[in-house]
Amino acid sequence: MSIVVLKDVKKSFGALQVLHGVSFSVEKGEVVALIGASGSGKSTALRCIDRLEKVDSGEIHVCGHRVDDPKLELRKLRLDVGIVFQSYNLFPHLTIEENIVLAPRSVKKMDKAAAREIARDVLAKVGLADKADNYPEQLSGGQQQRAAIARSLAMQPQVMLFDEVTSALDPKLTGEVLRVIEGLAASGMTMIMVTHEMGFARRIADQVVFMHQGRIHEHGSSDILTTPATPELREFVSEEL
Ligand code: ADP
Ligand code: MG
């Protein structure tokens, strides 16, 4: 069963065409690594999936929602899709637990006890069970990023999108966050992740999508990272090592 389908998605910003007909699909439980040089359109593709950007043409289907339909009910889409960025954007004046229960309480109208139980559960999943009552500034960058992942998981999404979530972190903190994502993959979460962590992509990705100048230039299993077919991917992989 496909959870995410993109068909010939095109997107321009003014005169600049950023996506030139991007198509791929993601089955339930699959992990997709979206890779490519800076400016190749990875973030735009990811943002189109969550309708943070509107496509110019083409189709996007996510968990039964037609994302390219102007009449899409955004609220319903967002219940099914979690997205985490490089910047964590936790509310500084709220504790970690308060950050996490916010959306389940306000969007899902969950009662306090139920939201708290979910917060405890997702914090345990990301290894932050003991940080519920801390404020974001009391946590390391890696811990804050894990808290941001927990906040997203608390909405119990069907698919998670990650956009370079470790790019701002040093190697040790990067490892902590990647382990959390690896755990999610093992638990069967469907994920699309933009990443520069080639070793990680090779290990956990079911599909690798290599973007170059707004097009999918190579697409396959993680084997394409070991044996690239095009000079562009060969060069990209060698630079990322
Ligand atoms: P990547 O994530 O692969 O680095 P992006 O999708 O962020 O690439 O960007 C692709 C191209 O689109 C870049 O040239 C970028 O400057 C441009 N771009 C992205 N977002 C916008 C925007 N909101 N307005 C104008 N140009 C944009
Ligand atoms: Mg980007």
Please tell me about this protein's structure:
Its main location: membrane. Belongs to the ABC transporter superfamily. Pfam families: ABC_tran. This protein has 241 residues and is α/β, with parallel strands linked by helices. It has one domain: 3-Layer(aba) Sandwich (Rossmann fold), CATH 3.40.50.300. The chain contains nine helices and ten strands. Helix 3 crosses helix 4 (112-125). The mean pLDDT is 96. Magnesium ion binds at residues 42-43, 163, 194. Adenosine-5'-diphosphate binds next to strand 2 and helix 1.
In brief:
The protein is an alpha/beta fold and 241 residues long. The protein has helices at residues 42-49, 74-80, 96-106, 112-125, 141-153, 171-186, 198-204, 223-226, 231-240, and strands at residues 2-13, 16-27, 31-36, 57-62, 65-66, 81-84, 159-163, 190-194, 207-212, 215-220.
